[in-house]
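Hi C.,

You asked whether I'd gotten around to modeling the 613-residue construct. I have! Everything is below, sequence then structure, no commentary in between.
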Amino acid sequence: MKILLIHADKFRYHVTGKAIKEPEEVAEEQQEYTATGEVLVAFCAAEKTDEKNPAAVEEKTADSIEQAARAINVKRLIIYPYAHLSSELASPKAAVTLLEDLRSLLQDRGYEVKRAPFGWYKSFEISCKGHPLSELSRTITPEEKPLKKPTVKLSYKILTPEMEVYSPADYTFKPGEEEFRALVEKEALKKGLTGGAEPRYLSYCKKFGFGWEPLSDLGHMRYGPEANLIFELISDYADSLADSIGIPVYHVRGTNMFDLSVPAVKEHAELFGDRLYELETESRQLVLRYAACHQQFAMIKDWIISYKDLPMGAYELADSYRLEQEGELLLCFRTRKLHMPDLHIFCRDLADAENFSLNIHRKIYEEIKKLGRDYVSLYNTTESYFKSHQEVFKQLLEVEQKPVLLCFVPERYYWVLNVEYNIIDDLKRPREIATFQIDVGNAKRFNINYVDAKGEKVHPIIIHTALIGTVERYIFTIFDTIVEGERAGKPPMLPLWLSPTQVRVIPVSKDHMAMASKIADQFEREKVRVDIDDRDETLSKKIRGSETSWIPYVAVVGEEETKTGKVNLRTRGSKERRKVKAEELAEEIKSKVEGYPWKPLCVPRDVSRRPLY
């Protein structure tokens, strides 16, 4: 904040016209003002750096003005916006808030304070006293204060399906609860994590083209052709899951940066914590979104919603940004840019939200079990909510069929229940994947309303969920599951619907290329991703290549196959060899990937035409 203080005998201003597109609203009686007798006029320019720690700026500016007022024994003050003092101005919204807060602070200290309107051209007359203290200038530069979640005291308990509550330190773990023990020891008992320095799944990620982008900030990924195909398939699957929950879900899209001078945005950012990407432009301080909340809430506050429309959902696969610590970055799991399939469900009241949350809870478990995994859960809640809503926890535990870890948080949180679903990875570390929470505060914060049966405006309750976690964490789960299977003696392979090539046709020699192409054409017509190993290599080398590429089905075509129309089929993970027609194999594959999205091959069909990458 830059200020110019002038001790005057007289000061008068008169509004003449708009200086910006949307100036502060001004009543007719505020358009002109005259002060006679002694007055201290504070010409003020709010700067964009002030937005990082406005409370400190306001306090220090008030102190500086009060110091000058005491020195000249003046009790009347005028705060006058004067943009010409700085070339690095705050956003209009932030400036108005700063100046109004400054006025209020000085008034609370016993001064008579008038504030001139912001965003208007004004003519003014001033008669300066002309003594040594009559003209003073100040620059207020407090230390920057990053947005940071306050430290809170947490307490942990273990809750069993029988609704028995235990202290984590006193709980006796039963056989089969090894994964739950890992979660409790990390979160509640704060024991050190086990495991080696580099997880095995990272080599699998590299194999398919997932990696860090070295020319970007730390924690940003890049995706080769096969990795991108996997990413897009999972994205499409996340979209379809959002549409499968039995209510209208509206797909929206928007920006990834929001103005921190907007109170709702700033408050929500402060609640999120200190892992924020911040960005400055010419006149604003922005935050890169860490989920789709801002965009959906900013949009839905403008909708006219009836109680008959609820429950309803809003969905976006949102690129989101979190300034994770460098030492905690982990490919596909903890990244600074992530893609959140963010679904918000708007409910009439808390009871409706609790009922629908049970459906979400079941859906989340259904999806992880499709991968052959299970979750261990952490329930963040308040003590008052837990005590008064025992039936909600009982119903959730009927789905779990095992103990969960409770974490009691302060009552001031904007949600009453936040469930974190963790897998235990190959290194025996809990990894949060999916989540849901029941939000009782943001509808009011963002002024989201619906009209109830009485015609009155009501704030809905909002469920936040990512049914499969971020796209990156779902990829992490898949590769970690492959590692788990490999340790159990299974050959590593992707789920069939995610395999970049589902069938590889291998001609025994060049003489069989025509038949191989014909068979590949049949697979393509049936929407099966197929390629042909047309390289001038031995059959055994081609088969080894398909194995190292994790190809699920390998169809060998030679003289006999050309005559019979059947391929000699090798299935990954099975020693079985069989003769089968292309159309029969296509039907088998389609039955196995039913319910999952499809995309065509992402590279040339002929292996010989592909670059090395």
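If it helps when you're writing up: The radius of gyration is 32 Å.

Thanks,
B.
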